[in-house]
Specification:
Blueprint: H1 13-40, E1 48-50, E2 70-72, E3 90-92, E4 112-114, E5 134-136, E6 156-158, E7 178-180, E8 200-202, E9 222-224, E10 244-246, E11 266-268, E12 290-292, E13 311-314, E14 320-323, H2 331-334, H3 341-355, H4 362-379
Parallel strand pairs: 1-2, 2-3, 3-4, 4-5, 5-6, 6-7, 7-8, 8-9, 9-10, 10-11, 11-12, 12-13
Antiparallel strand pairs: 13-14
Helix pairs in contact: 3-4
Length: 380
């Protein structure tokens, strides 16, 4: 057999074009990296870098030379986690239009991760990030959170504005202090019964009817479950540490259980079916000023209101409307309103709109009207 010298094979014109494109792209990327390095090298402080929000960056390889611990790069476009250094402790990439988490599983040193307001559906790769303590996933397209089951070190978790139906993967996350799952599709709170260290819990706009499970979460200080389907709130009497409570837009009628909450300072109860405010009858309750967001008079038909309390009513445009104990009676104002409940409530709403922008003794006027209504109902 005759061997002849081998010559370098010829590259087809199409392949030559592709090779040239790759080389050009690499050179462009290197040039961009040098520009970013020069721009940001003096902005790194103690291993922390914040990139301008209006910066158009799709590749973060250039930050490797900075030996960062924390990187804040909100509003970056189409960032690939394969271009992000693996040695970061904190990564903020919210509003960054990230569609997938490919490559994030190698970032095992992360303790804080913010990828809220992106377009993420699949979070399965997060199961590798066992050191995470803070995780914010708000406003994505997430339905399944089973990947979070192994993230036992989490203390702060934000799942707001997704499509989650079950919290079962969180049932053993006993280190959680703050949990948010606003506007999802949660019906059952039972999986969080073991989260006894929780101090803040927010689950507005879900499908919850029963809050009995909350009797186990006795360390809660701030609680909000507006716009659910809750009727019975008697369980709340066990939350002795609670200071802020909001359950607007439910079906609550009785609120006597709140009488035992001596640390409660802020209460928001509009759009319910409450007929009495017994909590203000006890002078020992709410030694501090209690701030109310207001009462909807179409849905909360208050029949009587005690005259002994100092109540602040936060009305439209944050106007503060005060009522003080032992105020003087006004016969002129009494005669101003008719006694039929429907018309009565309409008059109140008119008065609220007129007084919303000024500091007045609004509760004084409201009390007089309620007293007048109550007296006429008794006579009937």
């Amino acid at each position: 057999m005759l061997l002849v010298g081998l010559s370098k094979p010829k590259i087809p014109p199409k392949c030559q074009s592709m090779e040239s494109t790759i080389q050009d792209s690499t050179m462009v990327q290197c040039a961009q990296d040098q520009i970013f390095v020069q721009k940001y090298k003096n902005q790194v402080i103690s291993g922390v870098l914040e990139i301008d929000q209006d910066e158009f960056i799709t590749n973060l390889q250039f930050v490797e030379s900075f030996k960062l611990k924390e990187l804040n790069c909100n509003n970056c476009n189409n960032i690939s986690f394969q271009t992000v250094p693996n040695n970061l402790n904190q990564l903020i990439l919210s509003f960054s239009y990230i569609k997938n988490l490919t490559g994030i599983k190698y970032m095992t040193q992360l303790t804080t991760l913010d990828i809220a307001f992106c377009k993420i559906c699949d979070i399965s790769d997060l199961s590798y990030l066992r050191n995470l303590t803070k995780l914010w996933l708000a406003d994505n397209y997430i339905e399944d959170i089973s990947a979070l089951k192994e993230l036992k070190l989490l203390t702060d978790l934000n799942l707001n504005y997704n499509k989650i139906k079950s919290l079962k993967p969180l049932e053993n996350h006993t280190k959680l202090l703050q949990l948010q799952f606003i506007q999802n599709q949660i019906e059952d709170l039972y999986p969080i019964r073991n989260l006894t260290l929780l101090t803040e819990l927010y689950f507005q706009r879900n499908l919850v009817k029963d809050i009995t499970t909350l009797k186990y979460t006795t360390n809660i200080e701030q609680l909000a479950f507006d716009d659910n389907q809750v009727v019975d709130i008697s369980t709340l009497s066990s939350l002795k540490l609670i200071s802020a409570l909001s359950f607007c837009g439910n079906k609550v009628v009785q609120i006597e259980s709140l009488n035992k909450l001596n640390k409660l300072n802020d209460l928001y109860i509009i759009y319910n079916f409450i007929i009495d405010l017994p909590l203000f009858k006890n002078k020992n309750v709410f030694q501090k000023q209690c701030q109310l967001e207001g009462i909807d008079y179409d849905h909360a038909v208050i029949q009587k209101l005690p005259t002994s309390a100092l109540i602040l009513f936060a009305m439209k445009q944050k106007a503060i409307l005060q009522y003080k104990e032992q105020v003087q009676k006004s016969s002129r104002l009494k005669q101003q309103f008719v006694t039929k409940p429907v018309i009565f409530r309409s008059k109140i709403k008119d008065l609220v709109n007129k007084m919303a922008n000024s500091q007045v003794q609004f509760m004084y006027h409201i009390t007089l009207m309620f007293q007048k209504l109550s007296q006429n109902q008794e006579q009937e």
